[in-house]
């Protein structure tokens, strides 16, 4: 009788022990089973205040799941920066001091790289996952910066420069590497105008696998964040390429109607950043060939210039003067050089190689069509061609490492001479 009682007690203890192990295992499984952490950095301390708040509502509409974390940073004009763990129809407010003890004031500056670093690295560590999706939403002004803050804490306007952005991404990827062993962000999303430039891609190429960005202006309300989260939550096993492609579709498909002029055409593309360095090397080679070709036949180059699709950056963004810039669609420019310079064997070979390379770099591109027109020739990557601050443009990494700035400077000089003759 005593032996049976001992066996029963041992059996009960064993069952309790096994059950405890299973509970801990399931708990650990839940922690380790997160496929994605989506980190949203919404810079709305400017004229986009209302739209950023609407984006936040879209995030809350869907929220996190048992496989997907959603974390949001929201800076608006109400002199208070807020951070949230986003759940369906609910949020958990995260005090700024928890993220960084030095943040005694709640008015933070989205144009300061340290703000992005502190928030994103904290989110990476606090919400570990197999894959990370970093989204920056706000104003963009192409090669001159993004994430405008009209009150940096001192009532001044600040902008995140490309150099500052690269510095922030370097720190964020180090945190990701410490969590899951990866050296890059799976997807970097720039929900801002004019950020689909090769100059930007070259600056961030070492810190993400895929970049989602627009060549032109974006809709004021940006991407449909609720639809974006629905896509991730429905199939969290998707890799970065698959997810990025679906996000492009969700954005373009959410837009109603077609514009009547090029400046209003909405675009979005996905770029595989591992090919960007090779692309830039070939652009450098093309630049050297174009420097010679335009001296030999300036009128043909003028023709190429006239027919190439272009996007224009406005002179004022978020209360800050931005130098007027002309951006060429790279794919269209390459195609027009190929057609306009058919007798130049070296140029023909270079443009042919570039066309093939662009088909690898750009994994997805979609845009609106103009009313009554088709086949606009929009490819997914833009490139600076002219503007009011060509000297300032020469200071970015792309210009330093290529002869493109020399080509466009020489092109402007030759163009002026042709205009005077005409």
Task: Describe this entry's structure for a reader.
There is one protein chain. This protein is α/β, with parallel strands linked by helices and about 425 residues long. It folds into two domains: about 35-275, Rossmann fold (3-Layer(aba) Sandwich), CATH 3.40.50.11970; about 275-420, no CATH class. It is about 45% helix and about 20% strand. It is built from 15 helices and 16 strands. It has helices at about 1-30, 50-60, 95-100, 115-125, 160-180, 200-205, 225-235, 240-255, 275-295, 300-305, 330-340, 345-360, 390-395, 395-400, 405-420, and strands at about 35-45, 70-75, 80-85, 90-95, 130-135, 145-150, 160, 185-190, 210-215, 265-270, 310-315, 315, 320, 325-330, 360-365, 380-385. The strands form four sheets. Strands 4-3-2-1-5-8-9-10-15 form a nine-stranded mixed beta sheet, sandwiched between helices. It has a three-stranded antiparallel beta sheet with strand order 11-14-16. Helix 4 packs parallel to helix 5 (about 160-180), helix 7 runs antiparallel to helix 8 (about 240-255) and helix 9 crosses helix 10. The longest helix has about 30 residues, at about 1-30. The protein is globular and about 65 Å long. The relative contact order is 0.11.
